[in-house]
Structures are given as structure tokens and as C-alpha cells.
Amino acid sequence: MKPETLNASTRGAAGAHLREILSRNRAESVGGICAVCSSHPTVIDAAIRQALESGLLLDIESTANQVNQFGGYTGQTPSEFAAVVAGRAERLGLPREGLLLGGDHLGPYPWRREPAAAAMGYGRHLVKDCVLAGYSKIHLDASAACADDGGAGLAPEIIAQRNAALCQAAEDAWSQQPSGAPPPLYVVGTEVPAPGGETAVGQAPAPTSPGDVQATLEAHRATFSALGVQAAWERVIGLVVQPGVEFGEDVIFDYDRRKAWLLSQALPPKPIVYEAHSTDYQLDRALREMVEDHFAILKVGPWLTYAFRQAVFALTAIEREWIGQRRGVRLSRVRETLEAAMLGDPRHWRPYHSGDEEALRFARAYSLSDRCRYYWHEPSVQNEIAMLLRNLTEHPAPLTLVSQYMPAQHAALRAGRLAYQPDLLIDDHIRGVLRQYDAACSPRWEGLRDE
Q1: How confident is the model at residue 153 (pLDDT cuts 50, 70, 90)?
Q2: Alpha-carbon gap, residue 150 to 145, rounded angstroms
């Protein structure tokens, strides 16, 4: 599947649909969109199937760490990622106009240990590649301090200047596309959480102040004008702010709309809404309230691969209970192989976990930061997952075991909403998270349950 499958007309339709959703949110405080920030193929398939069920626009976004011109940790460039997502959507039957591709944290972040000039050069290259690959929604993120910026965080004016330079690269790439190609839509901000959650969380973050909202917008408007991309300013649809939500290794800070009330009331002029990052693990009620309060773009990522991990671990428990003593059957070693992969290359988890060896072992598997998501693509781990699915396909487990380890999927099986296939059990568990977002983002909030 070539990236051209996301052609100009379908990308234009998806972008127009997104702007309609955000416009309605501004006017009526209803409706939003869930931005699925994941490159995991099983998560992407689950998101596509959920979009088919809900009828809502599907926004799939890759981060600068996952996908970039050097392959990222997935080994995919933006054009390759676009082709993969388009191919999966076509295979599962999602109409092309129902899919929107986005780039998350596009900028210098993966190269922040280099001097700013070099890191920004890589960031501009990445933004350009994403636009040429057919990404419609571009999160410009130059908030990371680089090697020669000093230890403190960057001043908002510096971030705005660098974001404008990234925008300039995106606009240049758009100008190279055939006539009629829809222009990119942008998300900006200076108060941007670190990708994938914070490394250390002691207390709930304070919501962005209305004064900071105004200052951020003014700084970006001025720098966009100074670099000659003022036309792109009219296509800035989102501002990244801190609504007061975050998660760490074993803590979740829930949305408190009372604390975010001033921020909600300070909604910028049209067409901008708020984009909320790190909304993973929030309660149904909190997700709904954020949408009502104009945090109309809800980013989720680690929660989805965390759900994948939960389902895979549950299936390994079922496998051992059901066929662990059978002769001639080799049990999968998913957990052991995943642990070996993480120990063999600790760079993706070591900065996020602390404690003695037992605490580290536990965190590698169960931390909410879900650093094990960086290792599922390893061939050794993939082989063991394939063995797990093959074992439970050839030796179907009784419903009593499914009930023990995957009660929600057992209920779906009993009701006839789900067929017994090990891969579909994983899919349905991931979709349980996505259904919470769909309930919050739907204009009707059908089926929403408070917790």
C-alpha cells in the first residue's frame, strides 16, 4: 500500500471534518476527538475497528520518537508509517475519509542532546517528511531544551520562534505538493508535557494560567508573521495546555474541573481549542468533563499499549493453566523474552524507573509509564506472541478460564458480541479503553458510565 492512498481529496475531507468537530465543541461544549498516539499495529487495528463501530473520525498520530526520517524506534519513516496505516484501514474497511493522520511532538526532541541548530535541522526535516507523507495534523513542538540551551527550560519566546521555523518547513513541504493538496492543520504550545508521561511526579500539575495562554498565542502569532507564515496561523486549530492531569509510574492525577475553570473560560479566539496530553488512565467522567470544558483533543498513547500488555499477560496465564502440563506442547515465553529484551537494551526504561532490582523488575512489567511498549516490536518477542496465539488457537481455552483472567471479554463472549479468537480477545481489551474516549468525544455521550 503506497502512501498516496491518503490522497488529497480524502485528506481534505478528514481535515474539514476535524474542523467541524472542533467548531461544534467551541459553540456547544460537546463533541471532541481522541488522538491515538501509537505505532503499535495491534493498537492501530483496534482503533480502526472501533472507528468502524462508532462512526467517529479516527485520528492516528505517530510521535517523533516512534517514527522519523531515521526510522525511530519502530524502524519506520513517515511515508512508511502512512502507508502501513492506510493499508490497515483499507483492509479492515474504514473509508479513507474517516482517517486522519497526525504527527505528535514533531521537532527537536529526539535529538535534544545535540546543539539546537543541529536538533532543529533534524526537526524541520521530520516535519517536512510528515507533510509530504500526507499527515494532516501537525503538532509543532520545540519545547525541548537542547544541548547548548542550558539546563533550565526554554523561554516561551524561544519556543515560539522555533515552532514558527518548524511551521515554515511544513509550509514549504506543502507548497511542493500537487495543486489541490489540503494545507496542514497545526497545534502549538509552550507548556508541553514530555512525551509518554513524566519521569517523576510528586503532585498534580497546576493548570495553565489564562495569562500564559494569551502570552503563548501572542508570541506565536508574532513569530509566525516574522517568518512569513502568517497564513498558516489561520490553520492553527489547537493549543497544548496543561489541564492538571498527569500520570507517573504508579500514580494518576485526575482532572479537577474546578481547578481548570479559569483556563476553560479563557478559550482563545476561533478556531482554536485546547489539546490535552497525558490523558491516559483518566476516569470516564474526567474525560467527558474535559471535552465539555473545551479540551476537545484528547491524546492517549501509553494506556493503549498498557492494555495490550494486560491482555497478553492474561493470555499467558490462561495458556499455562490450560496446556501447561500437556506433552508435546511448547509454551510461549512472552514475559521472559520481553524481560530479556528490556535488560539487553535498558535505554528506553532506565531513566524512568528507580529502586532496587525487585522494584525495577516490577516496574518494567507493570508501570503506568509502560516503557515495555518500546520492546514489543523485537523479533524475539514477536515470535513468542505468535506462539502464544497459535497455542490458544489450536487448544481453545474454556470460558471458565477466560472468565478468570479476562472477565470483560468473557461477558462479551457470553453475549455473542465477540468470537473466541485469541487475537480478538486482545483487540477487545484495547477497545475497552477506546470506548471510554468515544463515549466522551461523542456529541451524544451514549453509553457513558461514571466511575
Answers
A1: confident
A2: 7
The per-residue pLDDT for range 159-173, each reduced to its tens digit, is: 999 999 999 999 999
Q: Which of 243, 278, 250 is nearest to 353 (CA)?
A: 250
pLDDT in tens, 230-247: 999 999 999 999 999 999
Look at residue 447 and tell me whether its pLDDT is greater than 70.
Answer: no
Largest CA distance in the chain: 73
pLDDT at 266: 96
According to DSSP, the β-strands at 252-253 and 246-247 are antiparallel
Least confidently predicted of 88-102, 177-191, 273-287, 366-380: 177-191
- The DSSP symbol for 67 reads B
The DSSP symbol for 76 reads B
Contacts of 432 (CB under 8 A, 6+ apart): 307, 408
C-alpha 88: how far from chain center: 17
Question: Which residue, 327, 200, 206, 302, is CA-closest to 258?
Answer: 206
Domains of the chain plus CATH, in order, are 3-300 (3.20.20.70), 306-426 (1.10.400.20)
C-alpha cell at 376: 514489543
Q: Which residues pair with 298 in a beta bridge?
A: 34, 276
386 Cβ contact partners less than 8 Å away, ≥ 6 residues apart: none
CB atoms within 10 A of CB 387: 17
Q: Which amino acid is at 287?
A: L
Q: Is 234 helix (H, G, I), strand (E, B) or coil?
A: coil
